[in-house]
Write a structure and sequence with these properties.
alpha/beta; Rossmann fold; 7-stranded mixed β-sheet; globular
Length: 233
């Protein structure tokens, strides 16, 4: 696969690929995978937070099947939730909402959250493995989140990041090598790198929750607030 040459000279040109077509089968697969532990662990981490006890409006950016928004709305009858995704996805999301009898409690917004208005007045904004583009694109989303959050609200972000000592998790190094071999530019951040980037937009990491016991990949959940810092940082 040309790995030695790639490591010496850098990335290889990315091959052009046909556009990805969203189908119900793909959404169903993502939904089933989330039910193997990731959804339960994420909802518990959020619902245990004091901010959740006061929350009434939730936005899930790139929420796909909508199960995270549905689960949070089921946790507390005060919660109203919105799932923001592309039009070809939200039509499927609405099927999930109907299947769980959550019409009126969970709604959809169709568009591109990196370009379109996401609304405001939210107590909780989720971005669960849905924000992972170039740093400038992430910055656009973080700025929108800052404006959209109510005072005291939280931004819950799940991502794959290296530990600050740079020694793991090993699986992320393997993923980065795979990206290099296919022409990508995967340079995953350390925890502190992500926190520093968020801080530029008035968002501060107050807690990091490992989801490794719930999923088969080294995923972390970052709990983020406006203008507050994690103890000891």
């Amino acid at each position: 696969m040309g790995l030695p040459e790639i490591l010496r000279t850098g990335t290889v040109p990315r091959k052009e690929q046909d556009g990805f077509k969203v189908e119900r089968e793909w959404v169903d697969y993502i939904a089933r995978y989330s039910l193997l532990g990731r959804l339960q662990a994420t909802v518990k981490a959020i619902s245990d937070r004091p901010e959740f006890k006061k929350a009434s409006r939730v936005m899930d950016l790139g929420g796909c099947h909508g199960l995270f928004a549905i689960a949070l709305a089921q946790e507390d009858e005060r919660i109203e939730a919105w799932v923001f995704d592309r039009p070809e996805v939200t039509s499927i999301t609405e099927e999930y909402i109907r299947e769980h009898g959550m019409q009126g409690k969970v709604r959809t917004m169709a568009g591109d959250f990196t370009k379109d208005d996401i609304g405001s007045g939210y107590d909780i904004v989720l971005a669960l493995c849905s924000v992972g583009g170039p740093s400038e694109e992430n910055g656009i989303v973080y700025e929108k989140v800052t404006r959209a959050l109510n005072p005291g609200g939280i931004f819950v972000l799940s991502d794959f990041t290296f530990d600050d000592d740079g020694r793991g998790p090993l699986q992320l190094f393997l993923w980065d090598i795979e990206c290099l071999m296919t022409g990508g530019r995967c340079r995953r951040p350390r925890d502190s790198d992500l926190a520093e980037n968020l801080d530029k937009y008035g968002l501060s990491v107050v807690d990091i929750v490992s989801l490794s016991n719930a999923v088969d990949v080294p995923m972390k959940l970052f709990i983020v607030k406006k203008g507050e810092r994690m103890p000891g940082s």
